Amino acid sequence: MSVPWGGYHYLFGPVVALAVVAVLALLLRWGFSSGSSLVQRRPSRGREGEYGLLEVVAAPPGPAEAEVLRGRLEDAGIRATLVPTTDGPRLMVFPEDAPRARQLLRGPTG
């Protein structure tokens, strides 16, 4: 009767265990390395002018008031984004919607 691996069959278990641990170590290193994680990072706060094409249409005093204003714009069909800037919450819209949004937020005139 022939013995597999010529008498080194007792090494099979530890070799497989080391290979599994090595693969797990590589996966964990990749998963927790900086810059290549699949988990979204918390957005950093910027100044008002750091949001691309979006324009500020309102500067509410707090997040609750900002949500109310954003809801009013959304109900009118205007896409609005609430942005936590370094100067406080800002309500931003695309430039083509800005005049209509400002008029709507100003309220009815006359």
TrEMBL record:
Keyword entries, A-Z: Membrane, Transmembrane, Transmembrane helix
Organism: Kineococcus xinjiangensis
Residue ranges of the TM segments: 12-32
Protein known as: DUF2007 domain-containing protein
Superkingdom, natural source: Bacteria
